[in-house]
Structure formats: structure tokens, C-alpha cells
């Protein structure tokens, strides 16, 4: 009340304040009733909160809903602060008015609640109802809630949080659900649970809210029909159970929006051993969503239960599977993945968002009727000649036959043929360097579009179009070496993979074709073919086989592109590929196929109309849409736009939603328009009105560009317009270029650039003219001596798969355009060839596209990557956020963009050596001065969790750079947030291990139990464990505990929570160590009972604990006799009364399996396996980092090796997944051994060891304890020496 009294908001409800010194609840509630019965302002809606807060008392709150105000709605606030009281729009003057009880009991009476319910249900403008912290054990509350929900008539949004449990709570929740089902106006439901028990209530509520979810025989008509949006805030640590309920909900409900939020506390997160969901769960979730026509939005951004994939290449496989599922039968329009998942999944989010505009969902799908073939290769490889030859047969290119010399292709040219074997459209990509950055914009980004590729490679060396002959004679051509051919093919294969949608189902078809073999002599042909075949079969197919389908055949891959008979087999092969794609590939919309046919005919009849207005396109579509008119209704224009977008994706047209026209011949745009621009080989040197056409920053005057595009400007350097066109506006062409990120238009009033258009292509031209050499990059503003707080950050983005993918030549120019769009208006952003320089808010950024060009050609940076260097006067935290979000994030967004990205590329982030950031250098100098973030984290974790005994758990891990890079602390490289996250992750792993160890120890304790004797402590609590004497820990874990416990006390709230949870871990560790020590003593003193020994083995005349290993391998445990095994090594264990153990330096003794007596020894194989398994489980070796380990050093290594040989223990290295106790052994190893066999085995052992020097072979000595039962035992040399020194044992001759 005091908070409310201090506020004086203008909200009308605030005038109904309860009396300051009310003496009764009735006096308080009178103001509440008056507010509900008041004359409301126009368009007023109310939010009412009813709270039953244990320990705080009952209250009701009332506020108006000002939808025009800035701030968070109730729905949005629940996602951000799920357990805070709702404060409309987050500002004081609109705080709700609270009416709290003044009764000493802090509760409203039953009659008072009845009055409240009556008043609320009669209010006609109540839109949001919040019922918070319901105490189920209060029977009257249950009745109140059910009564309220069954009577409200206008509520659209309902929030519900059930607080406590009772015997009949399930029945109450079911009644609540039934009441909600009857609410005819309810549209949104918020289920909030900050306690694990609440999720059980949620499950019951959802089952009754949507009966069809849990009962297959119930129709969806029985479900809550009006409810469209669900916000489920879960506190569950049982992710699998939560997931199952969620999947069922997705499969059967008719909700349009589902948003999920996991709010497990730090303790729950730490102890959630198996609670994380796998990516198989995520894939199944997408499979469930296929065909769901109701759900439109699924928000999992705050769901933290998913594990990141551990293997390097798993992410690509996951992305591919998800993209395959997001197809024609996927109707969800918005999906948001958990924020902790890899950024590669943004590609899936973008693909889903692109589905929003797809109004074709549900329309008829058919197999593709034609196939596109993309012809790729370097200049003069024979692409145009091949296209011409294909056209000869069908008389479609007769005009080209008049020319003896086929002209070079400018941009992209398209030829369509209707062959007897199939229908094709051949897309001829110009091989010149200038056109490469256009290619990836015109390749359909998905292989579902029915396209295949032909890579043509000339086998001869050319200079321009001239073949280079040996010794200058025109008799013997110079042929390319194998390395040159391989590199050329590899570039095009990487280019295609980078521009093809990641997919597990559909792989692009690529045919490799080689030309100009006719220049070889007959004697060389076979060798050349064999060399090429080896390159393809032994190298390329192995390297690219999991991403593409490479077609190569000696009978058709070597062609004379001029001869019709020579190319016929190739045409047949392409037809076979087309047939396979049609049968096995995804189907396409019939409507799009029909419109495509109409466009082909229209283009033939209207050769001068490559661009048409949208209304004209709609008229063309109407011819095909007439049969769908009854289904389409008012959505005709939406359908037409969807058709245009689909045809754009398949490469048949150019269309963007912001355009009011469609380019119906994309090849015209690329050939006639972009080809004309790119033909300005010396644009920066060409003068226009006595000034360079393009300035040093790549800006071109718009008026000059208009003259180039309309063909009125010609100085001889620009390719002339080849055909007349009609209805073309230059502004339309510029708009297309802008949408494709080919240029950026600067506002006319921007005096820094004097208007104009930024065209990155001009920067490349300038660089090739030697006007922008590889200069040493440097900071624009050098720091002064007073700039002590300057921080430097450096990052690298590169292709995760550098063998199969690359950043294409067109990628970085599009990144430059995006930087200009984002920063041009309020920052100093300058672009140069392969460089972006940015100054913004005290930060200076250099973004450089780096890489090496191929030795023979400079057509692309084969190993391109992007380095980001940042110098800032702001704090490191602020600089890091800016860099991650606005620099690296922008580049990643471009790469994963559905329209202008590289659909086959997954980017990975690396950290640059700060030394090379502070003093920038040439790209080649810092090439090896980077480490991938994931690799650094892996190194740090390895150092943290598996450090050496001399330097355990080294938090001061230094990363050593290649010379002359020096070293840097990992914490400085990762940043404080990433570092704290890493330590927290380690703490979670520690908690899981401690919990797992406790389960293992309890399992052993349940399996073995012994009566107390005079040498066994009665109370396990007698073992003391504290932070100063953590004997149960290994050194690394002691260090980890201390760091986490004491290192985060003053960092932030989240870190303090982790520190507090470490107290819980320490308590569990203490309990584990006490139990561990007790079990070790129990088993060591009762080993003959554990091993089923029938007697004390001849008064310990010989040692009893035997195990066998392979001869020459002390860590390979023999668990059974297998064929081919000739001998084994016999080992004996120390039988010390406090801890049995293996003897590390023991020689052992060989036993030949040919011996007639070996069968008598087989029970010892079983006993040995049991003994080792108990050592592993109780000794803590199964815990990867040694949590609670009593086994260390060389003994630990031996035990780990031996344990990996035990049957059913499938963990050969760090044994993290549990170990073998008798319960886990196979039947023949855990069954009791008959007494007669035991006696025979014991006698065998006595006979085997007779005459052998046990101390020399096994370092074991027969002793008697001098106190207690004074039992006999065989102990190792160390224990013997300690016992003699302490006088606790004496030597007894054998």
C-alpha cells in the first residue's frame, strides 16, 4: 500500500484508493467494488489480479490496459519476469491499485471472496484475469477459483499459478480445466510454475483442457475451442516428461501460438543429470509439426534443456534434416530456437519465416516437368559452344550458327530446349572473373528446384581464348597439370556446395565434362583420361561425396563441344539425372509449373518486355488460377505474390515483395544490365564530366548510371545494348539492384558522398587496375598515451567445412552493402576493396576479407575468411556486446539470409591474437594467429578437468600462439561472461558426477552388507570431510571446488547462486566420501564374503585376490578364454585390511593355457572381474575427473585400463558412463560359484604358487596384524614397511 500511495498516476482506476487506515476488509473492498462499477472511459479494458500469497496474505489488484502505452504487456512480462507481480507497461504512474486484507489472518473470508467473485464476474470490460499462487490445500480457495472461472464472460487472457499441493489437488486442477474449457472468450492462457510440483498440475490441466491430447477417442471438438495462444512457464527438471507432454500437445491441439520458458533454479540446473533433450528430440519435434495447419508460432527461445551437439560435423547434419522438414507440408510461420543453441540454426528460423508469405500451402503438388542445367567453368571452357550444339539439334539457336567464333557470355544466358529425352533450360554462367559475384544470386538456393550442374573444364592451357602450344608451334598443345585440373574442379564444386541448401535428402547432381582432348596425340589420350579419372574417383568423390552427387563416365565426360554426336551421351546422362530428380526429389506446386509455362510462351511472344508490372503478372497468373477461383476467394493477390516468390526462388523470375513489378527474364537483367555495368573494366579511371565515374570508395553518380543503363552513354569501354526493350524505367532497375544487394543508394542530402550509388563491383575493378594494392591496414585514429583504457578485440569468421565450402566472391560485397545500410546514417563507414572501416560511438572497427587466390587464377579467394578487428575506448563488456551483435551478428545474418546468403555455408567463430589486433598487420602475417572458440573452450575444459597432478585445474590457462604470437590467458580471450559460463558448466558437470557417484555407492551398499565387527566403524559420520581436508577429492576437483566456492562471491547474482549451490555439492561430497570409506573398509575386511570364498584359503598360505591379464599388456583384463589365446599373466592384489588394491610395479607370472590345470583356475577369472569392478565403482575411477577417487597415479591408470575390458562396460577411455558391479555383469560372471569348484580353484592356486617367490614376482608379503583379530593377510611392500614402522603388523613366513 505504501508503494501505491507514493504514486500519483493519471489512470482513472487510481482514484478508487482504499482508505489509508481501513479497519476492516469491507472498507478496503468497497473501493474495489466502486472501481468495477464505475463509468469507464471509452475503449477501457481492465486487468484484475487475484492473489492468494502464502506468508503475504490475500489481495486483489486492478489496473486499466492502456494498449497505446510503451512497455510490456502482461503476456510479454511473464516471459521476461515470470514471477514478478504484473506492472502494466512498466511505469509508475500506471501501477495497479492493490486491495489487501487488513484482517490479522491476512485472508479474506469466504463471504468476502464470494462478493469479490460476484463483482468481478459482473464487470463487462474485464479482459485479463490473473490468478496467482493458489493454495490448493485451502478448500475454500478451490471453490472460489472454480466458481470464478465458470462465471467470467469477457476474459480474453488468463494467467494461472497453482502454489501448493494437497491430497485432492489433482481433482481441483481437473475442475479448473473444465471451467476454462467453458470460457467462450478466452484466447490466451499463461501457465506459470516456479516449483517442480506445478508442472504436474500443468500436465493434468492440459489433459483436461484438451481431452483429445490424452484420449485418442475424444474429438478435438471437445477441446477448448477459443484458446489460441499458450505461454507455458515450466520449472520441470524432467525434460523428457515435459517433452512428451509438449509433443502430444503439438500433435493434437489447435493452438496457434505456443511459447515455452524453462525457469529451473540454479540447483535444479546443477543436479539435472539426464534432463537435457537431445537434437534427435528437436528433429522429432519438427516431424510432429509437419501437417499441423493450426500452429503459426513456436517460441522456444528461453527453453534451456537442449544439449549442444558434441561432434564437429553433427551441426551440419542437424541443420540439413531440419531444413528438409521445413518444406511444403510445414505451416508454422515463426520458430525461435533456444538461445543457447548454435547460431547455425538461424538458417532454419529464416527458412520458416520465409514460409509466412507462402500462400500456396495446401495446394496441389506434382513432380517437376522440366530440368534446369547450370553450365559452370572458366572462360573458353566450351560452355557456350556446348549450349549452342545442344540447340542445333532443335533449331532454337540458328542465328548463333552464323558466327564462326562463339561470343563470350556476359553474365548469364539461358537457352531452353524440348529434347526427345527431356525438357531442359541451360543456364550458361559467364566464366569471367567479373561475373562470378553474380552467379550465386541466380543459382536456386535449394536443390529441390530440379536443377543440376555441368562443370566444363578445358584440358589445355589458354591465354585468353588462345591455346598455348609447346615451343610456340601449333602442333602440340600444352595440357594442364593434374594439380591445376583438381584445383579448378574443386573451386566449382565448393562454389556449388556453398550455394546449395544444406540437406540430408536431396544432393545436387553434378556432371564433370572435359573439353579439348582432341588436341592431344593418340598416344597421350589414354594417360590424360587416366589422370583425370584418378582425380575424380580417388579425390573429389571422396571429399565431396556426402554433399553432392558427382557423375563421371569415361564414355561421355570427354567431349568435343562442337560435335552433335559427341555430346549426345552427355545429354542422355542429364536426362537420366532429370528423371531421377523428378521421381525421387520433392514435388512442386502445379500452379507454379503452369504459370512458368505461360511465362515461357509470353517471353517468346514479347521479346522486348523483360520486365512487367505486378498487375500484368497477375493477369498471366489468372489464366492458371481460374480453376482455383472458388478456393482462393479474396486471396488472389496473395497467391500471385506467392507464385512470384516461388518462381524467384527457382530462378525463373526476379521478384521481391517491395517491388511492384516482376523481371520475367532474369538472364536479361544479368546479361544486358549487370553485364553492361561490369563491362566498365576501368570504371574508376573513366571520366564522366571530367570526374571519375566511380570514386575511390566505389560510389557512382546516379545520373551517369542511368545513362549507362538506358544505353545513351558510350565511350567505347561499355558493352553496347544488344536489344531494344520496352517499358523499362531506370529507377526500377536500380530498385532490383538494391534488393539484390548489388548496390546501395546514398541519400542526396548526404554531403559526405554527394549522393549516388555504392557499387562494390567497381572496387574490384579498381583493385585489378592496381589502384588498391594489398597495403598494411592500420587504425584511423592512433591511441594516445592517455588512452589507458583502450581495449582490443579480434575475431575471425570462416567456413566450418573448409574442404567443401567457401565464402563466394559475391558474399563480401553484399556484406559491405549491409554495413552501409546499418551504419551509413550515423557512423563513419568507409568501404574499399575487401575492407570495411567503421567508427561508431568510441569504437573503431576494421573488417577485412582475407584469403589466398589460387596459383593459376585470381578468380576467387579459395580459402576466404573474414577478420574483424576492434579498438574501443568503451568497457570491454560493452565492446564485446557491440561486436557480437552488430558486427559478427550482421555478417552471420547475411550468410544465413534466405535471399542473399550462402545457403550451404555454416560459419564458425575464432579469436584473433590481440597482439596482431593492437598493431594490425597484413593478412598473411596473422593467418595462423587465430583459434576457434570451440577449440579454445575444449582446451580449457580439458585443462580444467584433466590437468596434470603437478598443476591441477589450472584456471590460469594460457593459450600459446604460433611464433611469434606469444601467449594470452584464456579468460582474457573468451571474455568474462563466456568464462563464467564455462566455469558454471564445469560446476554442473561436477554436480552431476557427485550425484552419479552417490547413486553408484548406494547401489554397492545395497548389494553388499556385513555384520559389524570390532574392526569396523559403526557410524559412517565418524569420517570427517571438510574444505580444508577433502581427502575424497582428487587435487583437480579440490581446486575446482575452491575456485567456484570462493571465486564468484562478488561477480553477479547468477554467479552467487552457483556459489551457493556449491554448498549443496560439498554436503553431497561429504556424504559420498564417508560412505565410500565405509564401503572400502567393509569390503576389504570381508573380501572372502564378497568373492564367495568358502574358506580362508589355507590360513592365507598364498594370496587370494587373483586376476589375469593378456601377456605383455597389464591393462587388458582377461574375462573369458577365447580361441587363439595361448597364455595369460597372473597378478595378485594387495589385501590390506583398510583398502585392497592392485600393485602397480608387479611383474606377475605367466600361465600357459595349454596346462591341464587351467580349467581349475577359471573361477578366479570371475573373482578377478568382480574385484576390479568393485575397485572401479567404490574407488571412484568411474568419475572422469576423479571426484571422490581413492585411486590415483599409476594404479588409477591400470584400473581404468582393466575396467575397460569388463563385459558390458562400454567406456574404454574415461569411464564416465558408469562401471560394472555384480548387478551389471553378465549372468556367467555374477552367479555364485559352487563350493566344489571353489575348493578346486583354491587348491590350484596353492599348487601354482608353490615354489615361486611371491615377494619377487608380486611384491606381496605375508603379515599378521598385531591388534584386533590379528588376522593374516598378504600386503604390498609399501603397506608392509608402513606396518613395520607403526608396529601394526608383523612378518609371518609363508
TrEMBL record:
Q: Cite the Gene3D superfamilies for this sequence.
A: P-loop containing nucleotide triphosphate hydrolases (3.40.50.300), Ribonuclease Inhibitor (3.80.10.10)
Q: Which domain of life is it from?
A: Eukaryota
Q: Which PANTHER family match?
A: PROTEIN TORNADO 1
Please give the name of this protein.
C-terminal of Roc (COR) domain-containing protein
What lineage, starting at the top, does this entry show?
Answer: Eukaryota, Viridiplantae, Streptophyta, Embryophyta, Bryophyta
